[in-house]
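Request: Mind sharing a record?
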Amino acid sequence: MSYAYIVFVYPRETAISGIDEANLDFSAFNVSAGDVTIRRIRNAIAHGRFSFSSDAQLTLRDNNRNKTDPFEASISAGDFGNFIQSFAGLAKRTYFDGNQDSANNTMQVDARTSRH
């Protein structure tokens, strides 16, 4: 969870809002309330609203102040690790690597911005 905190919470909600969620696969999440989004995952982690079961299932929960917009989703610890890696890769390509060739999912870095 430490890595998840660093990836989702530390950059601030405004920094991760620029990531195109259409490029993420949320299919491993078993959603029982609300819609799974990066903001909901971030809020659950930031506010400590998550738990692990004895069979390594992570459950994330979020709600608004009025308790009128609940979110709850579960995912295996292994699948969540894979999701974090996908999100971190997408964030890296979005903010640091320049252009991404979406047709074959390879990165193309502008040589003028590369540092040695």
User: Anything to note?
Assistant: The chain has one domain: 2-108. The first strand starts at residue 30 and ends at 33.
